[in-house]
Amino acid sequence: MLPDLESLELKTLSTKDYNSSPYVYENIFNSLSANNKITKILLTCANDFKQIQFFIDLCPYMQYFEIYCSNDTNIESLVRLILMDNLKLIPNLNILCLSIPTANDKLVDKLHKVLKPMNLYANYMVKRLLDKIHIQSK
């Protein structure tokens, strides 16, 4: 199923039927995650951390992950989820890009503080360009 796909952009995402047949989804998921070559993901539709976790689990070769966040997204928790809880699952991740309508320098400072206790401060730099914050490996 599209074994040469390297990039994935999703504008809408429905998890309505996700729990209806776990066995079917598990088989499909295991097959896809073991065989895909997806290195770039752009989510313009992630509504919750469960959806983001799904793509982390699905795409272990991910190098670039861009997420469009709403104003009510807890950005600090999102960064912890991806870089602290899941970095071992996506060891090739070089850039985490968060598109945030309210991005500002104060948020960049907060993210520096989030990275520091995770011992990731020396390995990543945080930059803002307009409404996008890039957390990039050095």
Quick synopsis:
This protein is an alpha/beta fold and 138 residues long.
Biggest sheet layout: 6 strands, mixed
* Number of separate structural domains: 1
List low-confidence stretches: none
Class derived from helix and strand content: alpha/beta
Helix content: 25-40%
Strand order of the largest sheet: 1-2-3-4-6-5
Q: Please write the string of helix (H) and strand (E) elements.
A: EHEHEHEHEE
Distance, first to last CA: 34 Å
Quote the average pLDDT: 83
Radius of gyration: 15 Å
The fraction of residues in strands falls at 15-25%
Describe the protein's architecture and organization.
It is a single chain. With 138 residues, the chain is α/β, with parallel strands linked by helices. The chain has one domain. The protein contains 4 helices and 6 strands, in the order E-H-E-H-E-H-E-H-E-E. It has a 6-stranded mixed beta sheet with strand order 1-2-3-4-6-5, covered by helices on one side. Strand 5 and strand 6 form a beta hairpin. Helix 3 (75-85) runs parallel beside helix 4. The protein is globular, with a radius of gyration of 15 Å. The N and C termini lie far apart (34 Å).
